[in-house]
TrEMBL record:
CDD domains: Sec7. It comes from Triparma retinervis. This is SEC7 domain-containing protein. One of its GO terms (cellular component) is endomembrane system. Residues 549-561, 1299-1308 have a biased composition (Basic and acidic residues).
Length: 1335
């Protein structure tokens, strides 16, 4: 029979059963017989809906509700309803109200006869399942109560009911049914120690956690606030004392959930939980390690750490802790306390605490955008070394309440306010600590710290009243000091302190309780006397006159609207119960003395009624109390009703004379005073941008914990995460300017890296091959080496990233660099910079040879085994795959690592690679903005501090310092660099260091000089001068580098005066003294003359070059004439350019030219191009006397030179005569002297020369001179013309007279005269000397 065929029969049978069979067995039988057919028809929903829900369900519901059916029959009926409910749940339309009522009745009124435990379990399980389905349609609270009954049953049935309750709670809170509050209230009542429920506390707490985890986190319903903030938190705190670990686990879970659900109105409660539960569990009482108690306490501590770990993985929660507690003046430093305790546990070796510390630092770094993610510990069920979080962390959702919560830190102004609050709180704590330590100078210290404005009693009293951390016993002693004559200031403070209270709206006993709750009453009667007197005076004042109101008449009933606000001190409220009435208390006292006497009487009554050692029959009765206080009110009695009410109030609630701070009480005390504790919780604030202050608070303890983890952990996953977190720590501290903390952290890492390098330096080269070694299983040397190499990598990388923050840790870095240099692993830093084309000097070869010998000696007797495999290479400089690590932690097969197929590398290669990828060489060689580095480099291996000889190794290290410091000198430390380099250049025992000093000076000169200030330029020139003064034994071997550097200086630096050229060329002159440097000098001079002769002439620097070239041309350097022609060409070019500018020339430079260009042809070109006025008459006279007229020629082979020389003299003397011959002054007499000398020189040639050409040329020159002397400007009295002609005639020259009208033309054109006339020889200027030299 198909389902469709069964439908009519099913319908008729159901109708028949429901109308004609009254017996309970008949519906049961029908249900049993039709269940199979019903399941067959289930697939046809339209047929079932057509039957009608109430008609279809009625027989099954009646069976379920019948008390005469067995558990099996009821179970079958329940199964049918479940099938039908599933069908309705999948239908397009929900059940009708009548159908839904049948379902609810079936669940609530289910009855049956138990046949067996198994059948009962099945039946109740189906009831629970049906209840969960019904709750999806209607969250009826009665369904929940029915399942509570089932869950209360013992054994498996109860557990089934508990699971059903979890489903119901999830449904109700997900769908936001009205029953939410009722369920939460009921569950809270079940947590009460006085509850008679049989439900396990752990199950109730678990249900509460289900509710919290599915509660709308933005729900600000006051009903929830009342339940959660009141009894729920109170009973959770109570159950935190349990020895049942399951209960404790649920309590801790509930606290975590409360932070997300209701932190906006549970600020105080959450503080109490963390302080009294979590942190308390971290410090169990001492017990023997092998005892059961010890194991139990360890488990509880472990659970507390699990809970704290969930907080650590929620950066939003951590920010909330910091903002709402550490930055609140009335709360404790909760965030700091949590982190400090975790750090202590981490240093004790607890791995969960270690993960927590890492998460906190990375969370802060994540907030500052310095780290991509928070490392999570690997989950594992088989390995105890791998720790998992107890629950999946959830992203925090802010809970906002407009009346009490807000946001802090989102903008700069709010963040500054928060920072100032934290700083002020720190000051308050410091001053409070001084007071609590009985420091007599605490008041001036408070003024100094800005906590109080003045040392007046008013400011001191207000501070003691408002500051919550003041020790109550110390405060009582301070306020009660007397007598007033001896301690007037304390008496005044007591009066001002009491004036801070407002008792105007409190009854007498309420006022007394509030007053005494702020401090501990001292034991001495006189001290109590003073305190009670101050109290009574303030009470009478408040009762007599309201704050800001009129004077109250005795017996008047003063009314106020609403509840009066009680001012009892910041962060505190009146004890419970407090009777605050609409009617303000009347003033029963006629004066303050009455209040004083009654205060004493009340304290005595309090002691009498609550003394445990006193028998009940001996306690004071109300009649006795009334009788004892008669006539104390200025001779009259106080109202009897007033005294009776006072008696009853004291009897109901004791006045705590020696009460401690509620937050410092034990859990039982906190639970007892819960209403008082949470009366003024304040609002919760969401914090943003506070990570900097958070990090500052915890920097010191977390650094210590990180160092311990790195040094001791045996977990590779924790180790790798710790290195990552360490980088985050350093980056964060550097970013916010905490240089001391940054350097401390970096120093610890460098020490570990250095120890590794020292340990493996003897086994650097031989490769190690073998199977893949899983990091988690590493032990012994392998694990130590891996840790050390990671430390080396991290320290180098962090240094390269944060050079501006480097301070004292740089000294450790230098030692590490020296060590790496000895292994050849320094990259560019290991190769000193030199000028292009320079080979290694003998000094460099010597130091490198010694370095190699030292390294070989270090290897002797040590194993040379390599160890670094492919996987480790991935971790160090590749993309490490944490998936394999996770697999290993879970006892799974690790994925094949492609890196393992690669050949292993040696330790040396590994270290070199680590240094390479760190980028430190590039960072150190680049100009830096950290002058500290430069100064440290120069002082670490300072020549100035070394009076004795040092080793080659010290010299080698000093070279590294100098090289790095030179590159950073632009960033600062110029004076130190200058002084250190001057000291280096003055050395005689460290030639390699001197060589490097020379190179660094010249390179600095090249890169800095043009843009430098005047003082720096002066320093650089002084340094160059110092190079020229280096001892000859050293300078000889470095002359090539000096010359090469000076060559670049001359070509690249723009000098503006001759002094600069003079300084540099003096060093050139020194370098040219040695063959190694002479060629570089000649090349340098040639290049600069060829490229920039205009600049040389303009600045006057050409004179210094000419002087050096003259020495090269004259063979002054070791008689070397190989550069003679090259030097003469340079001199000729410079001279031609200088003469062409028309500049005046002095004797010195002209004499140099004459000495350098000492052949007749060269000198004729050089001197012949000079205009007469470019040299003074004195210079001309000296040149003729010292050069021109003293030149001697041999007899053989020099007739041509003599003729050239004679022509030059004739031309030059005529030029001089034209310029100075017409002047009637002293110059003419000087001129006559050289003219006469030239005429005599020509006469000697004409008479004595063996060559006719020379004689004829001499006669012709003399004839030309005679023609010039006939010019009109030289004639007349005293003129040189007639005198000159006379001199020619005296010498034997017959000078013919030239036609007057042709004189000027002949001279100007340089042509001959007419026929029969003597030719005039005044030639045109000769071609440039450079063209002659080039031929």
């Amino acid at each position: 029979m198909t389902a469709r065929d069964a439908y009519p029969l099913l319908r008729s049978n159901l109708l028949l059963l429901t109308t004609t069979l009254p017996s309970h067995l008949e519906p049961a039988i029908a249900a049993s017989n039709l269940s199979l057919k019903l399941s067959q028809c289930r697939s046809r929903r339209e047929d079932l809906f057509a039957l009608g829900g109430d008609i279809l369900l009625a027989p099954f519901a009646s069976v379920i509700q019948s008390s005469q059916t067995t558990s099996n029959e009821t179970s079958t009926a329940l199964q049918c309803l479940l099938e039908l409910s599933n069908t309705f749940a999948k239908g397009a339309n929900p059940p009708t109200p009548k159908t839904l009522s049948l379902y609810k009745s079936a669940v609530i009124n289910c009855k049956f006869i138990e046949l067996s435990t198994e059948s009962t379990l099945v039946c109740l399980s189906r009831v629970v399942e049906l209840a969960q389905l019904v709750m999806q349609w209607d969250g009826d609270y009665t369904i929940y109560t029915k399942i509570i009954e089932i869950a209360s049953l013992p054994g498996t049935v109860g557990r089934v009911g508990g699971e059903g309750l979890r489903g119901i709670c999830r449904t109700v809170f997900n769908r936001k049914y009205p029953a939410m509050v009722n369920i939460l209230e009921d569950l809270t009542s079940l947590l009460s120690p006085s509850s008679e429920t049989t439900l396990p506390v752990s199950m109730v707490l678990s249900l509460c956690n289900v509710c919290l985890e599915h509660m709308d986190r933005n729900n600000a319903d006051p009903a929830f606030e009342k339940v959660l903030g009141g009894d729920f938190c109170k009973w959770c705190l109570w159950h935190s004392q349990t020895e049942d670990l399951r209960v404790l686990s649920e309590v801790l879970r509930a606290v975590f959930n409360l932070f997300f659900v209701s932190s906006s109105y549970l600020r105080v409660q959450l503080e109490v939980f963390l302080q009294s539960v979590h942190l308390r569990l971290l410090h169990p009482p001492p017990s023997p390690p092998d005892s059961e108690d010890f194991a139990f306490y360890e488990k509880r501590t472990d659970m507390a750490l699990d809970s704290l770990l969930t907080f650590c993985y929620e950066p939003g929660v951590l920010r909330g802790l910091y903002v709402n507690y550490d930055c609140d003046l009335t709360a404790g430093n909760l965030f700091e306390d949590v982190v400090t305790n975790l750090c202590d546990k981490a240093e004790a070796g607890n791995q969960k605490a270690q993960w927590g510390v890492l998460a906190i630092i990375d969370g802060i770094g994540l907030g500052m955008q310095n780290t991509p993610s928070i490392p999570m510990p690997p989950s594992s069920t088989a390995s105890s070394s791998s720790i998992s979080p107890p629950m999946t962390p959830r992203s925090p959702r802010p809970v906002s309440r407009t009346s009490s919560s807000g946001s802090i830190g989102g903008d700069g102004e709010s963040l500054n306010i928060l920072t100032e609050m934290k700083r002020h709180k720190s000051k308050l704590m410091e001053v409070t600590s001084e007071f609590n330590n009985s420091n007599r100078n605490w008041v001036p210290y408070a003024v100094e710290r800005g906590v109080i404005q003045t040392e007046s009693a008013k400011d001191v009293g207000r501070f003691l009243f408002e500051q919550g951390g003041v020790d109550k016993m110390k405060l009582g002693e301070y306020l009660s000091k007397g007598p007033a004559e001896k301690y007037p200031f304390n008496t005044a403070v007591l009066q001002q302190y009491s004036a801070c209270f407002d008792f105007s709206q409190l009854t007498f006993d309420e006022s007394l309780r509030v007053y005494l709750r702020k401090f501990r009453m001292p034991g001495e009667a006189q001290c109590i006397d003073r305190i009670m007197e101050a109290f009574s005076q303030r009470l009478h004042e408040c009762y007599t006159k309201e704050c800001g109101g009129e004077k109250a008449e005795e017996g008047d009933g003063r009314e106020t609207e609403g509840e009066p606000e009680i001012t009892t001190g910041e962060g505190e409220s009146p004890p419970t119960p407090v009777r605050i009435r609409e009617e303000i208390p009347q003033n029963p006292f006629r004066n303050s003395d009455a209040a004083f006497i009654l205060s004493f009487s009340t304290i005595m009554l309090n002691t009498d009624l609550h003394n445990e050692n006193m028998k009940e029959e001996k306690r004071m009765k109300v009649e006795e109390f009334v009788r004892n206080n008669r006539g104390i009110n200025d001779g009259q009695d106080l109202p009897e009703e007033f005294l009776v009410n006072l008696y009853n109030s004291i009897k109901e609630q004791e006045i705590q004379l020696h009460e401690e701070d509620i937050k410092k009480k034990g859990i039982e005390g906190a639970v007892g005073d819960w209403g008082e504790l949470v009366a003024d919780g304040g609002g919760w604030k969401e914090g943003e941008g506070v990570e900097k202050d958070m990090f500052t608070t915890i920097a010191v303890p977390t650094l210590s914990a990180l160092g311990h983890i790195l040094a001791t952990t045996q977990s590779s996953s924790l180790l790798l995460s710790c290195f990552s977190t360490f980088s985050t720590y350093c980056s964060t501290s550097s970013a916010i300017g905490m240089h001391e903390e940054f350097n401390d952290a970096l120093a610890s890492m460098m020490r570990e890296g250095r120890r590794f390098v020292e340990r493996v330096r003897g086994k650097c080269d031989q490769p190690w091959r073998g199977d893949s070694v899983w990091l988690e299983g590493w032990e012994g040397d392998n694990a130590t080496d891996f840790r050390g190499l990671l430390a080396l990598k991290t320290s180098l990388h962090l240094t390269s990233l944060h050079l501006p923050s480097i301070r004292l840790s740089f000294l450790l870095l230098l030692d590490l660099l020296y060590l790496l240099r000895s292994l050849g692993c320094l990259g560019m830093l290991g190769e000193v910079e030199d000028f292009e084309g320079m080979e290694k000097s003998c000094y460099a070869e010597m130091v490198e040879g010694r370095r190699r010998e030292h390294e070989m000696s270090m290897r002797e007797g040590q194993d040379a085994t390599g160890w670094l495999g492919g996987m480790v290479k991935q971790v160090l400089w590749g993309g490490y795959d944490y998936g394999n690590e996770q697999a290993a932690a879970n006892d799974e097969e690790p994925v094949e690592d492609s890196g393992n197929s690669e050949p292993s590398i040696s330790t040396r290669e590994a270290i070199r690679k680590v240094f390479e990828v760190s980028g430190l060489d590039t960072a150190l060689l680049a100009p830096t903005s950290n002058p500290f580095i430069t100064r440290t480099l120069l002082s670490h291996r300072s020549i100035r501090d070394k009076a004795e000889l040092v080793s080659w190794m010290w010299e080698d290290q000093a070279v590294i310092c100098l090289e790095i410091a030179t590159r950073g000198v632009k960033g600062g430390g110029w004076e130190e660099w200058r002084d250190e380099v001057l000291a280096i250049l003055d050395q005689t025992d460290m030639p390699y260091l001197v060589e490097r000093g020379i190179v660094n000076v010249l390179k600095t000169f090249i890169h800095v000089y043009d843009d430098a200030s005047g003082d720096v330029k002066k320093d650089l020139l002084n340094l160059v001068t110092a190079i020229g003064l280096i001892k000859t034994s050293i300078f000889r071997h470095v002359s090539n580098r000096v010359a090469a550097g000076i060559s670049i200086v001359l070509r690249t630096c723009k000098f503006v005066d001759a002094t600069e050229y003079s300084v540099v060329l003096k060093v050139c002159d020194r370098a040219a003294e040695f063959r190694a440097g002479r060629g570089f000098v000649a090349a340098a001079l040639d290049a600069v003359v060829d490229e920039d002769k205009e600049q040389l002439v303009e600045t006057g620097g050409w004179r210094s070059i000419v002087a050096t070239c003259c020495k090269l041309a004259g063979g002054d350097y070791e008689g070397d004439l190989s550069y003679r022609e090259r030097a003469q060409k340079m001199v000729g070019d410079l001279w031609s350019h200088a003469v062409g500018t028309g500049m005046s020339l002095d004797f010195g430079i002209t004499m140099c030219i004459c000495q350098c260009l000492n052949t007749p042809e060269l000198l004729q070109r050089a001197i012949g191009s000079v205009r007469g006025e470019q040299l003074t008459i004195d210079v001309w006279v000296r040149l003729f006397r010292e050069v021109f007229l003293v030149r001697e020629f041999g007899e053989d082979g020099q007739e041509d030179d003599k003729m050239i020389w004679s022509n030059m003299l004739g031309r030059v003397i005529l030029v001089v005569v034209f310029v100075y011959g017409g002047k009637n002054d002293g110059d003419r007499e000087e001129l006559k002297g050289i003219v006469k000398g030239v005429i005599k020189y020509l006469g000697d040639n004409a008479r004595n020369s063996k060559a006719a050409e020379v004689a004829e040329a001499s006669v012709q020159i003399a004839n030309n001179m005679g023609n010039v002397f006939r010019f009109p400007e030289f004639e007349g009295e005293g003129g040189i013309g007639e005198w000159g002609v006379g001199c020619l005639n005296e010498e034997g020259f017959a000078v013919e007279k030239v036609a007057q009208d042709d004189d000027t033309k002949g001279v100007e054109e340089g042509g001959g005269g007419g026929e029969g006339e003597v030719p005039r020889c005044v030639p045109l200027p000769p071609p440039p000397l450079s063209s002659q030299l080039s031929m």
